[in-house]
Write a structure and sequence with these properties.
- This protein is of the alpha/beta class and 252 residues long.
- The protein has two domains: 40 residues, no CATH class; 184 residues, Glucose Oxidase, domain 1, CATH 3.50.30.50.
- It contains six helices and 15 strands.
- The protein has a nine-stranded mixed β-sheet with strand order 1-15-13-7-9-11-12-4-14. A two-stranded antiparallel sheet has the order 2-3. Strands 5-6 form a two-stranded antiparallel ribbon.
- The radius of gyration is 21 Å and the shape is globular.
- 36% of the residues are buried.
- This is Cyclase family protein.
- Keywords: Hydrolase.
- GO terms for molecular function: hydrolase activity.
């Protein structure tokens, strides 16, 4: 049986409109030849291919840049009354499973997805969640990756909706929006007006019930609503609050 693999990830790049730090310094074959020749105590012309060596890069990168998986410790120091797990402690079984796409591409920036919205989206596709499904929130805002206001254009998950998914046995979730919650400036404005409950409600739900989510996915619009396998394993960063991942959908 043949398999079709769809890349669901966004790239790390210089001059990105992602607000998280990312910078790539490219070192070409000729610069590396001079660096390595100096380190090895030889002349560049003495290398097997004179004056040329392997290319390389130096990268300065936030763990929350690009397509990445948030660990429970990102949401707070504890989860379910225990020390919150870091990204290197996440069960890998959570990262590979049956994918389910719920379409909220019709929602506007700043709208909060509630429990009723989830239930109606599931009814539309005639699907019942089972434990360890991986639920993907489709907003289509990945298409704004090259817009200066990309981080301001997505709807977000609310506290009750996030907790409801966890209660259905879901441990891994994801979105193709910039963030899991609504845009940060909108939440900050609500906080300044005295509404503390509006500040990162989806994230902070992870303090009460343990889960992970993936942010900045892409191409969820190319997937069926279910009947495919989702896979995204985080880079093993010791004691980190997040890890970059290459997310893919595998369709038979």
């Amino acid at each position: 049986m043949s398999k079709h693999i769809i890349d669901l990830s966004l790239p790390i790049r210089n001059a990105s409109f992602d607000t998280q730090e990312q910078h790539i310094e490219y070192i070409d074959h000729y610069a590396m030849a001079r660096q390595r020749a100096s380190a090895y105590g030889v002349d560049p012309g003495d290398l097997p291919l004179p004056g040329v060596h392997s290319a390389s890069e130096r990268i300065t990168l936030s763990s929350h840049a690009g397509t990445h998986m948030d660990a429970p410790i990102h949401y707070g120091p504890t989860s379910e009354g225990k020390p919150a797990r870091t990204i290197d402690q996440i069960p890998l079984e959570w990262c590979h499973g049956d994918g389910v796409v719920l379409d909220f591409s019709w929602m506007e920036a700043g709208q909060v997805i509630g429990v009723d919205d989830l239930q109606q989206a599931l009814a539309r596709i005639e699907y019942t969640l089972k434990p360890f499904d991986i639920v993907l929130i489709r907003t289509d805002r990945w298409m704004d990756f090259d817009r200066h206001d990309w981080a301001m254009r997505h709807p977000g998950m609310g506290r009750e909706a996030t907790l409801w998914l966890i209660e259905q046995g879901i441990r891994m979730m994801g979105t193709d929006g910039w963030g899991w919650d609504i845009p940060i400036p909108m939440m900050a404005e609500a906080l300044r007006k005295g509404d503390a409950d509006a500040f990162f409600p989806g994230h902070y739900a992870g303090r009460d019930k343990e889960y992970c989510h993936i942010e900045k996915l892409a191409r969820l619009n190319e997937l069926p609503t279910h009947g495919f396998t989702f896979s995204a394993f985080p880079v093993l960063i010791e004691r980190a609050s997040a890890g970059w991942c290459r997310a893919v959908a595998i369709i038979d």
